[in-house]
Amino acid sequence: MAVIGVLREPTPPTWWQANRHKVFGVCGLLIGYMIGSNYPGVADSHPQPPRPGHSTPATTPGRTPAAPGSTA
Question: Is the pTM of this model over 0.90?
Answer without folding.
Answer: no
